[in-house]
Amino acid sequence: VLSAESYRRRHEISVTGDNVPPPFTSFEATGFPSEILREVHNAGFSAPTPIQAQSWPVALQSRDIVAIAKTGSGKTLGYLIPGFIHLKRCHNDSQLGPTVLVLSPTRELATQIQDEAVKFGKSSRLSCVCLYGGAPKGPQLRDIDRGADIVVATPGRLNDILEMRRISLHQVSYLVLDEADRMLDMGFEPQIRKIVKEVPARRQTLMYTATWPKEVRKIAADLLVNPVQVNIGNVDE
Ligand code: ADP
Ligand code: MG
Which residue, judged by its Cα, is nearest atom 23 of ligand 1? Predict the structure, then answer.
């Protein structure tokens, strides 16, 4: 068994924040519900990736996180599984709107997140809806009306649907900004800020980014409260 320090050193993890919990170096250490452990086992995963190992214990403490890690490091389950556990604790009515909201820059990425949420969330009986532009609104509005615990959305389309008053974000208490640097590069900052205004201030906010330039630091400072920062490898500004 590795100490937290040696695991972090070995996997180039650096953390900042108060009392950052030690990483979960194995799936057994996570204490995840058995139906979730069964799904990761079925997927053939043998151990958490470094970003998962360090961000899961932080996210399970309901703390805000900024995670900086490159593509392919397993960030999606890094926020989805704590989101599933958050949902189980909430007992919200999905007919009244989602509890977990994930913002993603593109249709392609949003669809991948949706697929991961469906695959790993189905045994927990979670419902998930995906909203993106370049497709008719009708079916997406019908999906919303059926109710969803989790909404994965691109900022443009979600903002359009909010302006139509066809979705309510008043129950959202777990907000994820995935690929925050790309969303800002694509000019989505105004839409992100409008969306966040509709989300209650009492929430957990998780931001994932591959790079850490000043625009991303600024929006993190505005939207997150006392976050734990987790870096994997060298941080690219
Ligand atoms: P990122 O968002 O950091 O680019 P993804 O979340 O898309 O990365 O994950 C990349 C790939 O790794 C996906 O195919 C995912 O299913 C897989 N993956 C996630 N967690 C693990 C794990 N613990 N072990 C092995 N593969 C994993
Ligand atoms: Mg990703």
Answer: 48
176 lines ligand 1 (CB under 6 A): no
Report which of 180, 32, 190 is spatially closest to residue 102, judged by C-alpha positions: 180
How many whole angstroms separate alpha carbon 178 and alpha carbon 168?
A: 21
Beta carbon of 233 within 6 Å of any ligand 1 atom: no
Residue nearest to atom 26 of ligand 1 (CA): 45
The complex's ipTM?
A: 0.99
Q: Measure the CA–CA gap between 105 and 19, rounded to whole angstroms.
A: 32
Model confidence pLDDT, tens digit, residues 21-80: 999 999 999 999 999 999 999 999 999 999 999 999 999 999 999 999 999 999 999 999
What is the CA(166)–ligand 1 centre distance, in A?
Answer: 33
Asked whether 8 lines ligand 1 (CB < 6 A), one says: no
- Give the whole-angstrom CA distance, residue 150 versus residue 152: 7
Closest CA to 143 of 162, 129, 126: 129
Contact 169, 94 (CB under 8 A): no
Nearest CA to ligand 1 atom 15: 74
Identify whether the C-beta of residue 111 lies closer than 8 Å to the C-beta of residue 134: no
Q: Which ligand 1 atom sits closest to the C-alpha of 73?
A: 3
Cα 25 to averaged position of ligand 1 atoms, centre (Å): 16
Tell me how far apart the alpha carbons of residues 160 and 224 are, in angstroms, rounded to a whole number.
24
Q: Where are the alpha helices (DSSP H) in the chain?
A: 4-10, 34-42, 50-60, 75-90, 107-121, 137-146, 155-163, 180-185, 189-197, 214-223
What's the pTM value of the predicted model, to 2 decimals? Answer: 0.97
